[in-house]
Design brief:
It contains 6 helices and 5 strands. It has 180 residues and is of the alpha/beta class. The protein has one domain: 2-Layer Sandwich (Nucleotidyltransferase, domain 5), CATH 3.30.420.10. β2 and β3 (37-46) form a beta hairpin.
């Protein structure tokens, strides 16, 4: 989508990369959208070495996402926004992983949109309290996948990309508000 357009051009193809950030596992999912047709291009997980320094794990995430961006040339990144729980250290690490992903996209002038876990679940399953299994099944149905996307982190990343696509197709004003 060009920045000068306020409507979704049904003739052009949009490639959306969904990211479920984490320091141990970062899920990704890449979907091509052409008009109303969706095609899953790629999904999986980035798994930095668990014994690596935290700063080295961030570097692995950055370099891996950079490679994915160079391969698939997404026009948009949809990323899960951090959920702040009782453990502030976990939230800070997760926020840094999100920042690393955002910087990778911004270096390539890719627009980034953030979605809360609850918003993604509501968009894809219809309830913000959906289980991982429910989300995984809904993603497989939406994308006509012959098997469930595994692991959960990859399914979550595809769901995040789908959430963004639904926002693009259904409510442009909501879609524009989520830009980071």
């Amino acid at each position: 989508m060009t920045s000068s357009s306020n409507t979704l051009d049904s003739e052009s193809e949009h490639i959306i990369i969904g990211i479920d950030p984490g320091t141990r596992v970062t899920g990704y999912g890449v979907i091509a959208l052409s008009g109303r047709k969706m095609k899953t291009l790629d999904y999986g997980c980035i798994r930095p070495p668990p014994d690596a320094l935290l700063s080295d794990r961030y570097l692995v995430i950055f370099e891996s996402l950079e490679e994915l961006i160079n391969t698939h040339k997404p026009t948009v990144m949809a990323i899960e926004t951090p959920f702040v729980s009782k453990n502030i250290q976990s939230a800070l690490k997760l926020g840094t992983a999100q920042g690393v992903a955002i910087m990778g996209a911004k270096r390539k002038q890719i627009k980034v949109f953030g979605y809360s876990p609850r918003a993604v679940k509501c968009s894809i399953v219809g309830t913000g309290k959906a289980s991982k299994e429910q989300l995984q099944g809904a993603v497989a149905r939406y994308l006509n996948l012959s098997e469930l996307p595994r692991p959960y982190d990859a399914a979550d990343a595809l769901a995040i990309a789908l959430c963004h696509i639904q926002g693009m197709q259904n409510s442009l004003s909501r879609y524009l508000k989520n830009e980071i």
